[in-house]
Structure formats: C-alpha cells, structure tokens
Amino acid sequence: xxxxxxxxxxxxxxxxxxFLFSQETNTCDVSGGTLSGExxxxxxxxxxxxxxxxxxxxxxxxxxxxQWVVTDESGNILGLPPSFTAPNxxxxxxxxxIVYHLAxxxxxxxxAAGNNLSDLDGCFSLSNGIPVxxxxxxxCDVNGGILIGGPFEFIVDGAxxxxxxxxxxxxxxxxxxxQWVVTDESGNILGLPPSFTAPDxxxxxxxxxIVYHLSxxxxxxxxAAGNNLSDLDGCFSLSNGIx
Length: 243
Known about the structure:
Blueprint: H1 2-25, E1 34-36, E2 40-44, E3 57-59, E4 65-71, E5 77-79, E6 95-104, E7 124-126, E8 130-136, E9 146-148, E10 169-171, E11 177-183, E12 189-191, E13 210-216, E14 236-238
C-alpha cells in the first residue's frame, strides 16, 4: 500500500512539472503582423525622402510591445524609429533598406541599432519586410551653350525675314540631343525649327521673339509648340536667348 502511495505521488509530481514546463514553453503568443505596401524607391538628391503615412498597411499584429525596425539587406539593424514615416532615407545614402514591424514580450534581448536580427533572443515575431531602394541621382551633364550674335530687327512688310547663316555662333554646347527653340517674351514656345535660319520672322507679325539653343537627354518632356519653357522636365540646358 505504501509503495502504491509513493508511486502515485511521484506520478502527480511528474505531471505537475510537465504542466509547468508546458506552460513555460508555450506562452510566446505574439505576431509581428503582415505589412502591405509597394516597394519604395528614392533618389539620393539632398531632399528628404520619407515613406508617406498611407504607404504601408499593418494587419494582424499583436503583443504587449511593438517596434518598427529598419535593417540593411543582411539584417543589420540601422534604426528603431517610432513609425515607418520617421526615417529620412535620403540621409542613408545609396543602397537597400528593409522595414519590419516587430512584436515582442518583455525581456527581449538584442534589440539595438548595430546588432543583427539574428541577435534577438526572447519572445518576438517579425513581420514580412518592405524594401526601400535608394538610388543615386542621375547626373545631368548637358550644356545649351552660349549664343553670340544679334539682336536682330526686321520690318514686317510681307518680305521674308530670316536670320543669316553666319549671324549666330554657338559655343560650348554639349548633350545627346539639341534643338533650336523660338519663344515669345513670356517663354511660350512658338516653334522648334531645325536651325535658327529657318524661321520667317516676317510671318510672325509685330512683336519680339527669343531664339534659344537647347541641349537635352532622351527623357525630356514638355518640348512642344504651345507649351512654355517652364513645362520642360528632364535633363536639359538652355543657352542664353537672342532677341
């Protein structure tokens, strides 16, 4: 009888310890959640680049503590911002960052800038990562040049008035593409002639036109008659104007 009591007590103690062990190893119930948002790409140009407030959505995260985490591609922790909108990625230079949401219990070890995600130890859960690509600013190396010649004055009398071929000289122009541009005094583009000799200014009527030389790269937008010089967008350079 005494032997049976001892066996029963031993069984109860083992079960109790097993219950405690089970409780201790299964109390990590946190979720870093799911992040939804597009890949972000910023140009490093000296202007602040922040993820907008509606740029990332967080779903299904829970836990007593949470933290936004920014790492490099190797998981090295670069920052622990209060929100994903806070970091200025322009200041980080060229490269790739990953943004995570972290949920964790008290006692988490290793959560510090300079550590790696692999250093985290404790009860925690990371969301999926959202990449932020930081690229170098494209170098716009074009020059519209310097125009020498003019100004010109024509009488509107029904006879063609063209600038002579030797009347304007272009110095130091460079770029993949070039274009002559004729505008009014407000910068409205009147024509895009193949050369400064082509326009018949008698046909333009009374007033003032400005002749420019334009150099530009292939990405130029807004170069069309009827637009204004202020509509030009891309890599370009205008010369001085000849009246």
